[in-house]
Amino acid sequence: MAESRIRAAVVGTGAIVSGGHLSALAAHAAEVELVAAVDIDPGRLAAFHELARAADGVGDPTGYTDLATMLDSERPDLVLIGTPPSLHREQALAALRAGAWVWCEKPLCLSLAEFDEIAAAEREGGPYAAVVAQHRYGSGTVHARALLDSGELGEPRVAHCQTTWYRDTAYYAVPWRGRWATEGGGPTMGHGIHQTDLLLHLLGDWTEIRAMAARLVHDVESEDVSTALVRFVNGAVATVVNSVLSPDEVSRIRIDCAEATVELTHLYGHRNDDWVYTARPGLDDDARVTRWRTPAADEPSSHAAQLAGVLAAIRAGTRPPGSGADARRTLEFNAALYKAAFTGRPVHAGEITEGDPYYSAMHGNHPDWAPKEEQ
After folding, report:
1. How many of the other CB atoms lie within 10 Å of CB of 373?
2. Pair (145, 258) in one structural domain
3. For 104-136, what is each residue's pLDDT tens digit?
4. pTM above 0.70?
5. How many other CB atoms are found less than 10 A from the CB of residue 279?
6. Which domain holds residue 351?
7. Does residue 266 form part of some domain?
8. Burial 246-269 (b: 16+ CB within 10 A, else e)
9. Does 325 reside within a domain?
10. Overall domain count for the chain
11. Residue 333, SS3?
């Protein structure tokens, strides 16, 4: 691609786009220009237009209420999708088929079958579809990943992944929330997916999951809490907890290695100060511990940090971060968690393939969990 600014469009102009996506575009205004915005609500579209014009250097996007019309008229290089989850598959496919790269809010789609359909629409050298996974980005994560990969912290042994948040009844009054067909699942898919993705990013491939899920408080189709025990290829074992029932809200990743424990505690985003390194008892190497605790940079996790990699990939014609097999692994993890929870037996990586009910839907058409009209 020539060195002119990359032409971007947003689909959906709600809070996540007018916040995270717009600020990311502003951070990279020298490289990317927002040329269009799509929303079925003209009022919301007009409000977003004013925000975009006020954001220094972002652009003066033309508004559309129809995605197909926008794609045909504008031919953008990149489409940022921030609509409800049930729309992601159709919108990502439309953008890819129009020749646009895709950067989509989580989850990219609602099943492994949908993911594979999207992947089939990609072309070598682009366009590709990537999912927003901003917790992977920022200097704290980069530093921790490097230390783990190098063996500096020793062999990973025990891990804990926690997304314990609180959502009230009013939250689920939004029609698409809490329903399999529109959200794809409960906190496992809609909330904890960020921390789960980060855990996999840090520890690598998993091999086996045992799980439980429950609907304890909310009158929804999907779960409002899930827990899992996970074994990784490297031998580490982990616990995963996803909840929307927890008054004391926290997001946490903890990995106990042979030489040290690394722990991240935050809520919706992190920076260096949120990462804590604790040396094992008896380790007397101040220089080494100081190295663990002093990343080379101090950049918070953010949409802007990930967008930098997406834009670089577009320029180079290479697969962007948060796409392909790497993104599929997180979705497969969630499908396996649901299958393990609903069937009461362990599930292994690679087990859920075409023909398995959990390949096509996270509820697996289980009689206790699937909507009655789908059984």
Report:
1. 6
2. yes
3. 999 999 999 999 999 999 999 999 999 999 999
4. yes
5. 17
6. 136-300+331-360
7. yes
8. beeeebbbbbbbebbbbbbebeeb
9. no
10. 2
11. helix
